[in-house]
Amino acid sequence: SLRIDFVTSDTNNVQDIIDRFAPNANNVRDSIDSKDEIDLLATTDVLSEGINLQDANCVINYDLHWNPLKLIQRIGRVDRLGTKHEKIFAFNFLPEKDLEKDLNLIDKLEARINEINNVFGMDSKLLKEDEQPNLSYMTSIYKEDLEEIEKYERTILIGDDPVSDSINLLKKLMQKDPELINKIKGLDGLRSAKKWEENFDGIFVLCKASDYIRPYLIKFEKSKPEIHTAQPEIILKTIKSESEEKALNIDRNLFRKHYNEACQKAIYEFNKDLKVRKKLIDDPRKHKRLKSKRRYVERQLRVLAESISDEEQKKTINYYRTIIHNISIVPVLREFEKMEEKKLTGKEIVLATESLIQKYNLEEKWEKKKELMETFDEPIHILCGMYLKGE
Predict the structure, then answer these.
(1) Which residue has better confidence, 368 or 116?
(2) Where are the domains of the chain?
């Protein structure tokens, strides 16, 4: 029969359970009786970092995390150096359709995965089968000290996790009180106030441009407003309030003065963030040599389109050129390099390009990237804010 055990933050004998689930990875094979071994381990994120579980070769994510780096970290407990398995399997439960319409979690998660893959690279598929991992950066990571990498994951990439707590709270609220959720949706530009433990005043501001959202906490410790933090986990902890908690009364003139100054500061920082984000998504200096190979393919397609009279064929070829024009995925760029080395032209290069578009799902990626780039042309909108009165 299947032997199952569970680990949460309240579990006392965690190491014993880890040893019985992964005796080989934890070098305790000689001290674990085979009849005491665990076949299936169900756990919260308490085991998502710094734990060796590579006796297993399958991870099931029941609750998708808002941060793809956390999913990478979970899978990394199994997909680690020293594993004896040739293949590692990861399965993800996606939110039900009605819930996903409101949360939009999958689209946001996919966008973050694409950004991480394009900028840093990934060593495997994470959420869906059609992902194309970029191995270039990850190869160098595996040469580094694992403890330092895990320390970096904990302190920089992951941090605390009140964001997931907030998402889970929102899920429950959507199911329990949908009328309240609809009411909140209609309260655009909502502002409130509460006390906080600092000895200076602060303002929380939430900025949005298209689907890109960024929170800022502005402090008024000196004469000019300054960024106190932009980390979602810290801000969520700070502004968290109970449902029965009443908004604090703040002098109207003081509120208006500080709130306007905070919004100006937040918009300034948001614009800077957008520029950095745009550069990460499409830095012209990145993969410069390989991108020249893409230009070869574009040029050959353009020459062919100009030489034919059939309008439908011309339209199709120009559409292919449009799709590949902004592609900077390394495996695709290397395919372009091979096409140039073979000196493909005419019908051959059209067929090769069409094959690439299908193989790497480039049409969908182009559509998503186009939507993402449109973010930078959208006006910045202040969704809500909160005055934090110092002691």
Answers:
(1) 368
(2) 4-158, 187-391
* Residue 357 near residue 363, CB atoms below 8 Å: yes
End-to-end CA distance of the chain: 60
The encoded tokens of residue 263 equal 């919004």
Question: Which of the four pLDDT bands, split at 50, 70 and 90, describes residue 220?
Answer: very high
User: Quick one: which of 158, 173, 133, 183 has its CA closest to 50?
Assistant: 158
Predicted local confidence at residue 281, as pLDDT? 59
Q: Could you give the CA distance from residue 110 to residue 115 in angstroms, rounded to a whole number? A: 9
Q: Which residues pair with 42 in a beta bridge?
A: 6
CA distance 378 to 77: 40
- Mean pLDDT estimate for the chain: 79
CA–CA gap between residue 302 and residue 252 (Å, rounded): 62
Q: Which of 285, 256, 65 is nearest to 168 (CA)?
A: 65
212-220/226-229 β-pairing: antiparallel
CA distances to 185, 209, 231, 278, 333 from 375, in Å: 21, 6, 21, 9, 25
Task: Quote the Cα angle for 88-94-97, to 5°.
Answer: 160
Is this model's pTM higher than 0.85 or not? no
**Cα separation of 366 and 328, whole Å?**
11
**Is a pLDDT exceeding 90 seen at residue 10?**
no
User: Looking at the DSSP assignment, which residues form a beta bridge with residue 59?
Assistant: 90
Contacts of 325 (CB under 8 A, 6+ apart): 294, 298
Q: Which residues contact 188 (CB under 8 A, 6 or more apart)?
A: 383, 384
Instruction: Say which DSSP state 211 is in.
Output: T
Query: Is the pLDDT confidence value at 261 over 60?
Result: yes
The CATH number that domain 4-158 falls under is: 3.40.50
- Helix axis angle for 178-185 and 162-176, nearest 10°, is 110
Contact predicate 61/73, CB 8 Å: no
State the DSSP H helix or E strand holding residue 353, giving kind and residue range, or none if neither: helix 346-359
